[in-house]
Amino acid sequence: MSETSSPERRPHRRRFEQAHLWSSTVTGLVALGLSLYSFVALQRSPEIDVTLPHVLRISQEKDVWVILQPTMSSRLHTEDVEVVTDMRLALQPSGAAGPSPTPRFFWENNVSWKFDPKTGELRHDPVSDPAPLIVSQSMPQQPVTHFIATGWNFRPGRYEGTVTLSRASSRASITKHFCLDITEQNLSEFRSGGQFRQLEFRNDVPSRTGRQGDCYAGPA
Known about the structure:
This protein has 220 residues and is α+β, with helices and mostly antiparallel strands. It has helices at residues 10-43, 184-193, 206-209, and strands at 49-51, 55-60, 64-68, 71-73, 82-94, 106-116, 121-128, 133-135, 145-149, 157-167, 174-182, 199-202, 216-217. The longest helix has 34 residues, at 10-43.
């Protein structure tokens, strides 16, 4: 009788076969669990991250125009996509600016920027109508959006703002908050520039805002 088939070796061999069977079973269950998790993850709607830009461009004459470029992205890979069906801009006067009428903005269109060598300034041209935006990990969106409030003008003071994105899925709307400071000097520059000259407001220049990350503010 060979050494491998001796009575002393048989219990050890059975234990090895049982351990191998359990190991294969556990490995298969883990693989199945990971596959199910991946399948569920791929089927869910992607979670959207929304970031407001460091720059708002604003002009004022008869109406107020606000141009901003939010970033919409998803960090997770899914087979589904999210659809942003609408964007809304709102400003609420507060502090010295209030009480005053609350503007009603609407999304006029999306634009692109072009440099005008004659004036040394940027000008915008319409590129598309307001329309739903498809967002996924492989398809982030950065539309340059143009909002208008007709028949309304700024007063000096602070304004509390929101940008709200509606979604086609059952998830709640996404709202991003910001604040905006308007000075008498800004109003004077609005008057001299007219409706088609945008004034740049930033939230990342400490000399303008007092500290980095504070309200959007125009040139000092």
